[in-house]
Amino acid sequence: MGTKSVSKPKLKRTAPQTKLFVLDTNVLLHDPSSVYRFEEHDVFLPMRTLEELDNNKKGLSDVARNARQVTRTLDEIVSSREDSIQEGIPLVELSRKLASGRLFLQTEAIDDELPVGLPTAKSDNLILAVVIHLQRLYPARRVILVSKDINMRIKARALGLDAQDYFNDKVLEDIDLLYSGMRELPDDFWEKHGQGMESWKHENRMLYRVKGPLCPQLLINEFVYQNQDGAPPFQAIVREISEASGKTARFETLIDYTHPKNNVWGITARNREQNFALNLLMDPEIDFVSLLGQAGTGKTLLTLAAGLSQVLDSKCYSEIIMTRVTVPVGEDIGFLPGSEEEKMGPWMGALEDNLEVLNNSDSHGGGEWGRAATQDLIRNRIKIKSLNFMRGRTFLNKYLIIDEAQNLTPKQMKTLITRAGPGAKVVCMGNIAQIDTPYLTEGSSGLTYVVDRFKGWPHSGHVTLQRGERSRLADYAAEML
């Protein structure tokens, strides 16, 4: 890397207004298809990035799999070019027209033009040297370093270089725009939508067909509610949107799980959002449920109560399978002895705590099965599985709970949800404000990804739980700390 060379890679053919993105290794390891994600702009891979890919390709981790996938992708790109690659390799055909730029590989040694104090033996600094070199060669062109490493971006900016995060994997730029699963109806809703309204009763539920300007904005299985002074609160779920005009919607009122007679394994909903969640969890037509909320909002308790009721009472599912990402909050405790379930034990404190609450509830819904259920019987129907052994499995007629789902990448989330076989139900829950996985953010988390992609599907539903119901201490701590 110390040999002097001033010959330019032939980047002249590219329009000057397009940018040149230099990719850090962690971008490729995070998204193996990232070379195709820069549209009309060019991508440059330093030799050090390729070496780091080589160092990460061994093993069974997701990082190693991604490194091997990137290597295969790059091999396909390079092999498509029979002549010199110095002019860049067009990506338009290989990317199926997703990218119209070119891929450039470092084909020459460069000067280590780094400030004193930055050791040239460090990979990050060698990549920064490439960016400095390209910026000097092409002063009229914008050269940008793309990295998931915050410190790398800070160092780049300290050296006067343009650097940014990899944004293509972000579902939303502003997490406040994430679908909440519910909508408050305006005060004048019935005046604007009540003309020609139809209503009828079906299996103890009231159904309404309304028409008006708000209907096209609604999504199937979105909850709607209205609180007016002096009138009982209105709560319903959107069951249908007219495909022809889009201006007609069908509402269906909910089962009131706040009432003790509708308790689920002895648990009743304590607020509006918990009532919405139980309506989704207990609905056999809903195959996928996502629950968001901070600690103490009742996600795990409601999900387990609904699962036990449907496994032991109504027998809709044969057993509950619970899994979660094993990312430690502090220092790792090292290797653990025992079987798969015993190894997962330390990660399943939430399961133990909630089972204790469910076993101590005064009355289990569902008659004799519920009343006679013992700790052993419940444990017999709950299996704890590790994510590491999920690939290739199919869950038939199972109630699958994915806890702490905010720590999953979109690819891991896809791997898990596609395990669902006929008759299975998948419940994802988590708190996107508590992400422990490196390089994942609120906008790029797998949980955010599935909430956004599943909204509006007739067999899925989502609720963002707002109020904590754990204790006054926990509520105060969540608000003030």
What does this structure look like?
With 481 residues, the protein is of the alpha/beta class. The chain folds into 3 domains: 20-164, 3-Layer(aba) Sandwich (Rossmann fold), CATH 3.40.50; 176-253; 271-480, Rossmann fold (3-Layer(aba) Sandwich). Helix content is 29%, strand content 18%. The protein has 15 helices and 18 strands. The protein has helices spanning 25-30, 47-55, 62-79, 123-137, 150-158, 189-193, 272-281, 299-313, 340-344, 349-360, 368-372, 375-380, 410-417, 446-454, 472-480; strands at residues 20-23, 42-45, 89-90, 102-105, 143-146, 162-164, 182-184, 198-202, 205-211, 223-226, 234-241, 248-253, 288-292, 319-324, 382-384, 398-403, 425-430, 460-464. It has a 6-stranded mixed β-sheet with strand order 3-4-2-1-5-6. Helix 1 (25-30) links the parallel strand 1 and strand 2. Helix 7 (272-281) packs parallel to helix 8 and helix 8 crosses helix 10. The chain is elongated. It starts with 19 loop residues before the first strand and ends with a helix. Residues 1-5, 328-333 and 362-373 have low confidence and may be disordered.
Brief characterization of the structure:
The protein is α/β, with parallel strands linked by helices and 481 residues long. 29% of the residues lie in helices and 18% in strands.
Present the secondary structure layout.
Layout: E1 20-23, H1 25-30, E2 42-45, H2 47-55, H3 62-79, E3 89-90, E4 102-105, H4 123-137, E5 143-146, H5 150-158, E6 162-164, E7 182-184, H6 189-193, E8 198-202, E9 205-211, E10 223-226, E11 234-241, E12 248-253, H7 272-281, E13 288-292, H8 299-313, E14 319-324, H9 340-344, H10 349-360, H11 368-372, H12 375-380, E15 382-384, E16 398-403, H13 410-417, E17 425-430, H14 446-454, E18 460-464, H15 472-480
Parallel strand pairs: 1-2, 1-5, 2-4, 5-6, 7-10, 13-17, 13-18, 14-15, 14-16, 16-17
Antiparallel strand pairs: 3-4, 8-9, 9-12, 10-11, 11-12
Helix pairs in contact: 7-8, 8-10, 13-14
